[in-house]
Amino acid sequence: MKKILCTMLVSVIALVLAACGKIDGIVQTEFAKIINERVSFTEPLTRINDSSVQKRYFINAGEYSEITAYVGTNATTDEFVIVKTDNTDNIVSKLSNYLTQVNSTYSSYRPEEAAKVLSPVFKVYKDTVVLIVTNDTANAEAVFDGYLNGEILP
């Protein structure tokens, strides 16, 4: 009886451990909500529509399957964008070019804002690219990692 009970307990523990760990993929609406709730930004961010996202980041409609972006006013560089795509290298390149442009624009009149774009949270996980620009970088990194590891739930 003890042997059967131990075997069952080991099986349950194995199933629980198998369920833990990294998530299959980033759910944009859920992750955007978590970022807004857990990462500090200089000002409240507002979600922008797909057409505005395409213009802002120079990403064409056919280059992604899902895109979510939140931005502040032009007074800050605080923002985040989550892009699901078949070509992460292309999106990383476009977002890198965007950051270079923002740095150039802000460096002359808001250098403290320009500094943020030099050290953003910039990650690729499977088919999703995530860019978070904030002064709260360490926390944003922890939120990203915690979400991927299933430690932070919506």
Provide the descriptors you would attach to this structure in a database record.
five-stranded antiparallel β-sheet; 17% strand; 49% helix; 6 helices; alpha+beta; 154 residues
Task: Kindly describe this structure.
The chain has helices at 2-19, 28-38, 50-57, 88-107, 111-117, 137-148; strands at residues 46-48, 66-71, 79-84, 121-125, 128-133. With 154 residues, it is an alpha+beta fold. It has one domain (23-148). The protein is globular, with a radius of gyration of 19 Å.
Number of strands: 5
Number of helices: 6
Question: Largest sheet, order of strands side by side?
Answer: 1-2-3-5-4
Mean pLDDT: 87
**Major beta-sheet overview:** 5 strands, antiparallel
Distance between the termini: 41 Å
Topology as a string of helices (H) and strands (E): HHEHEEHHEEH
Radius of gyration: 19 Å
The structural class is alpha+beta
Number of domains: 1
Strand content: 15-25%
List segments where confidence is low: pLDDT < 50 over at least 5 consecutive residues. 1-21
3D shape: globular
How much helix, percentage-wise, in residues?
40-55%
